[in-house]
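Running co-folding for S-adenosylmethionine.
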Amino acid sequence: MKYLAILGRNKTLSLAELESLYDKAQDLGGDCASFESADEVNIDRLGGCLKLARLIDEPIMKWLTKLPDGKIVIGVSDYSKRASGRTVGAEALKLKKILTRHGRSVRVVLGDGAVLSTATVLHNGLGRSTSGRKVELIRLDNKWYASCGVQDIDAYAKRDQARPARDAKVGMLPPKLAQILINLCGPLPEGARVLDPFCGTGVVLQEALLMGYRAYGTDVDERMIKYTQKNLEWLNKSDFTISVGDATKFVWEQPIDAVACETYLGPPLKTMPTEVELKEIQQEINPLLRNTLRNLVKQLKSDTPVVMAVPAWLRPDGEYLGLNLLDETDNLGYNVKKFVSGGRLLYHREGQVVAREIIVLRKK
Ligand SMILES: C[S@@+](CC[C@H](N)C(=O)[O-])C[C@H]1O[C@@H](n2cnc3c(N)ncnc32)[C@H](O)[C@@H]1O
């Protein structure tokens, strides 16, 4: 099945997530991408995807008149380059008029611009309709697509904010990003065991469990292990193992099918560090990450994916300076995964001083 995906804010990262899991992932320009999957795709497992849609391969009116009996609710978004709120609104009303003439009762959901926001789509029941009568119609370059999924922003917010044990100091890994880290490991069989050697409060483990994997977490800080225990119990899941352990020397129990983690990112910074300050921070983090990779490589099976979110710092030229870890991973015993989308996999808000850079490795 061919899908149209509307990508999240970090487009390169979202595209890499699709490429890791599915065939023929392709950038269509703007926020759009396409990919193919033999199986039905569940948007709730994709952290980087805002909307999913399928091609309507017949005239749009013919398709609409075949919708199940009862009141129809349609929203229209146009992701083509020249689309505007005015043209989209006119198009939506034209469709409504014709449908009304066919005797159908129709409500149209309109947005502020050419595309409906994720919140509007979700809260109007479009994209997740079980009746099949509520649909977001997505237009891209003269083709029409029907939505078959929209990101459940409310569910993500709940998972993020309602966890009983949170710690602002270790930073809050957004659940969406945790899902992306796991998905960048590539397709994993159901029940695969995902290790997070820097588990903190357990967001990666939480998302792994919700995705149907087993979770294994270690952290050097006993307090964090208690937090993780509390959070995973709150989730009502039991298929996890956690333990205090220093990632640079811990001996993990087998099996480990994938490693996905957000490492120590250094001190949280509100202002850009000077060259000297940055050198000091890097001198603390570099050995931690290298020694972790050295320790892991001895214990992993060949071809095991290792996905890490590591820090990169904003510099005066507006670029993010990373750790050059990738230059050395070859010697450390890993291959670096390259994505067709190219470019670095960075996750940050505009102007954020410490970004996360995602590195995707496989043990040789
Ligand atoms: C950025 S936090 C990870 C937060 C985590 N993603 C979460 O969901 O809360 C980094 C974690 O690495 C842990 N850490 C630092 N040095 C470590 C080491 N040598 N071995 C294992 N864990 C370590 C810290 O205790 C901290 O919990």
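Result summary
The radius of gyration is 22 Å.
Residues 205 and 215 are 5 Å apart (CA to CA).
Job closed.
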